[in-house]
Design brief:
Layout (H helix, E strand, L loop, with lengths): L1 E4 L6 E4 L8 H14 L1 E4 L6 H11 L19 E4 L2 E2 L2 E2 L20 E10 L7 E5 H6 L3 H7 L3 E4 L18 H5 L4 E4 L1 E3 L6 E3 L6 E4 L4 H15 L5 E4 L6 E5 L3 E5 L11 E8 L5
Parallel strand pairs: 2-3
Antiparallel strand pairs: 1-2, 3-15, 4-17, 5-6, 7-15, 7-17, 8-14, 8-16, 9-10, 9-13, 11-12
Length: 280
């Protein structure tokens, strides 16, 4: 295997591997570089759904997405991202994640990693944007770092909706609503494997800082959101059919750009999500 830097800020492109056939030694090499780079891209794969589930499980237990209506009918561990409609029914969620977030940050155990397996990709559209949250933390001044370290924040499912942002309209069942209570996470988390600190606030899910007035909380969060999403931190990933990527949600955040994708630009990506631990 070969690992070539994808961008100086984040990520590596991996060649010389077939993800349908991973040895234990091969996986250890992949995992070490996953921790090193935060995001790995495996171009030109033909990863089967069985292979995707099996490879994902090497990283840990898989989550079944809350929005079960978009899960693959034969593989409930696979969440379908697609704008394709068959017989009048969407086969997946058309613009899932078109806001800045870390996957499942609204849960007690946010996602450790996310894997996407690209089946159909529209030419010149549908980039996914990433931010290295280690770097965003490291670049804050010492005064802000000291102030933020003891803070905790409330994370809320689809918190972005209160900011009048548009997105796929999702009508949750009462059972689904019951699975999305507010949760509290540290504003700064320590990565359990690398020991490095990273900001853990996201415009799409972080609602307020615990113990502060509404105005002070909003001021600090808006400052942090603007800091993290400054173009100097944003790394675009330009998709090609057959790409498989995996990223570390504990030290990155991301946003899809599919909200305005026209129906004729077909997109189909299969997602698996590896469950993480409680942030500290």
């Amino acid at each position: 295997m070969r690992f070539d830097t994808l961008d100086a800020r984040l990520g590596a492109r991996v060649s010389g591997v077939d993800l349908n056939r991973i040895t234990d030694d091969g996986f250890r090499e992949i995992h070490d570089n996953f921790l090193r780079y935060g995001l790995l891209s495996f171009p030109a794969q033909s990863l089967s759904l069985d292979g995707q589930v099996a490879f994902s499980r090497r990283f840990g237990d898989l989550d079944i997405h809350l929005l079960t209506q978009y899960n693959h009918p034969q593989y409930p561990e696979i969440f379908v991202l697609s704008n394709i409609v068959v017989d009048g029914k969407p086969i997946g969620i058309a613009d899932g994640g078109s806001y800045w977030h870390s996957d499942l940050a609204f849960q007690k155990n946010p996602a450790m990693a996310t894997m996407l397996n690209a089946q159909e990709i529209p030419e010149g559209a549908g980039d996914t944007l990433f931010v290295n949250m280690y770097q965003a933390w490291d670049d804050l001044g010492a005064e802000w770092q000291e102030r933020l370290l003891p803070m905790q924040a409330i994370h809320r499912y689809r918190a972005f909706e209160k900011k009048a942002e548009r997105g796929t309209q999702v009508n949750l069942t009462e059972g689904q609503k019951a699975k999305t209570p507010d949760v509290v996470h540290p504003v700064v988390r320590t990565h359990p494997e690398t020991g490095r600190k990273a900001l853990f606030v996201h415009p799409g899910m972080t609602a307020e800082i615990v113990g502060l007035s509404a105005q002070e909380s909003e001021d600090i969060l808006e400052m942090l959101f603007a800091h993290c999403t400054n173009p100097r931190y944003v790394v675009p990933y330009r998709w090609k059919k057959g790409d498989v990527i995996i990223w570390d949600n504990r030290c990155t955040m991301h946003s899809a750009t599919t909200r305005e994708l026209p129906p004729e630009k077909r997109r189909l990506i299969y997602r698996t999500t590896i469950r993480g631990d409680v942030p500290h």
